[in-house]
Specification:
alpha/beta; Rossmann fold; UDP-galactose 4-epimerase, domain 1; four-stranded mixed β-sheet; 11 helices; globular
Length: 353
Amino acid sequence: MKVLITGITGFVGSHLADYILSHQTPTQVLGLARWRAPAENIRYILDKITLCYGDLVDHSSLRRILAEHRPDIIFHLAAQSYVDYSFLAPAATLEANVIGTCNLLEAIKTLKQATDYDPVIHICSSSEVYGQVKEDEVPITENNPFRPASPYAVSKVAEDMLGLQYWLSWKLKTIRTRMFTHTGPRRGQVFVASNFSKQIAAIEMGLQPPVVKVGNLDSLRTFLDVRDAVKAYWLLVTKCPAGEVYNIGGIETMTVGDMLKKLIKLSRTKDIKVEVDSKRLRPSDVTRQIPSTQKFCKATGWRPTIKFDETLESILDYWRHYYDVKSYKMPEARPIEMGQAKFVPLGVDGSKR
């Protein structure tokens, strides 16, 4: 079996590759990557995967890769995924997420019409499509109205609907997911749990005053560990029918402020203060993200298994290692839990020590 992951060098893509290599052998893992994409997240599996260089906004590169490799399953995870940046660069966000998805689906359609190629395609949408839901709409089901509150969310509505349209019009075997808040080691530093963890790790090293800068702490979210998320994605493509859409999310709900309190409690530094930074507040925000995952759980039998406290500890340990805190030792079982990757302490500049 051949699996293609777009966005394999990213947060979820790298964890998905780890999971497949660890649990679904023999499976050949292919990854779509741009030549300039950093390979830090996949550096320990580079000898186990095949990188296919191309770009979602270049249709010809996608046709070439698909015709050459003909993957059986395609996980389309690549995206401009930072909500705040989408307000600064809406056109770039729409090009990457909407035009990129359209190019991928068109390339698959063209190859299907010319040959018997007919892969399963996971279209990764987002809970952001629901926007600010009403109190009586919680927990959020797949039938909830779309109220996108950012250019990123608009792009994900379009991506979601493109997946549906290519199933209805051309019978491409697309399955869509709307993933709610998920996090873990390797999460980009601009995302909330990772950002707070990095700040706390810097405070512990004496590289930052004992103050965590924050945005809106009142947003209510249900958190999921990325390792549970990628298990869900594999079950999706092996158990769910084409044309369907599923919410996927965790079972532990709290405000962003309560999440921060958990992180501060895990810190080895006492008396950390919290300070609101107006630059971290969005022009419009989504403050109530609580999913109903009943449809997906019924279809696959999936349930989250990793406690969120463990997730937070693993993120904090990741950033401690980033700052090369030699007094902290990663639990031996953790690299196994996260797949093939083994952590090597990195210096502040990202170099190996």
